[in-house]
Amino acid sequence: MTLILNPNLGPGELSAYLRLExxxxxxxxxxxxxxxxxxxxxxxxxxxxxxxxxxYQRRLALLLRDLSRIEHRxxxxxxxxxxLVFYDVxxxxxxxxxxxxxxIPFDAGLRLFQAAQKIVRxxxxxxxxxxxxxxxxxxxxxxxxxRNVRLGHTxxxxxxxxxxxxxxxxxxxxxxxxxxxxxxxEESLFDRRVLSTMxxxxxxxxxxxxxxxxxxxxxxxxxxxxxxxxRELCTAIDTALTQDSVAELDVSFTWSRAARAPRDSADSVxxxxxxxxxxxxxxxxxxxxxxxxxxxxxxxxxxxxxEADDEASGGEVGMETIIxxxxxxxxxxxxxxxxxxxxxxxxEKRRVVVRGTLDSHPxxxxxxxxxxxxxxxSLAAQQPSDDTAHR
Length: 391
Known about the structure:
Strand order of the largest sheet: 6-7-4-8-9
Number of domains: 3
Oligomer: single chain
Distance between the termini: 32 Å
């Protein structure tokens, strides 16, 4: 069978994938590089560098053929692995023991697509704001995100929808406050942050409605909001489980190898049909309880102010962030122990996340009353790579 080349496959994806597999460039020219592998001294790969070259497609096909032979798997699979090196893949699966032909009833399939869309939108909204129910007040960024993520071909295995989202490695931030955050770079990290929120929220909901031996208490439900659970996330799960032909809903995550998985993230959660009553109960509680709306902001620490004569009072922190595609510096107070953590994150040049009540009226100093502060665990350290990996 003739291999159909992916027209979007570029040198950045090629070099990132090869480095992850242990290959390193040994000789370089203007149009191509020769790569070698320490464990395969007899092998060498010629890697094209310019997509605009007239022979790029031919050299790409030869490279995929060589990798297919070395890795002992079809060239199509190799190409798929390279193509997705900078992407996370979330698989939403509807299963039933009687569905032996990998099909489901039409209505159940339609509801599965709807459930997947609702899960993505709820996670995107919770990445921006934490609240029990969004109703009609969806953040614009969350609605845009649903339009931007991609849906792959359905896969065999009961019925599986692959949701594909970007996962570029996070470039380092400068500790020089004169060098501003790059808005486009920070926006590009939103996809991974959404998926991290989705993983945390689904794991929290799963713990309450499936693993726990008791019905969730009002405090359990309130605490779950802080982890990204919302009424809309619950109704998304319920949308799929409403059908008798769906015995369980399984959401699994295949994290990009180039960007690494978020720390302590769930790889898979399964909601059986029996959990539906508890999921509906949590959704109903989230509609009724009053949970203060909290904003979630990501950025880097640019200012630290500590009263030298009062070591027990904590200090003030200035954090540069992006709000509606505009750079803003948010100021907030931290207790002494948390302030010292902020000092450490600043020294390590780490991105941080803060959650709380935001006051950012135009023309005034933007401040936040903080309820949670810490490192941005959705982003791991950047993988070693050359410059082409980010072009």
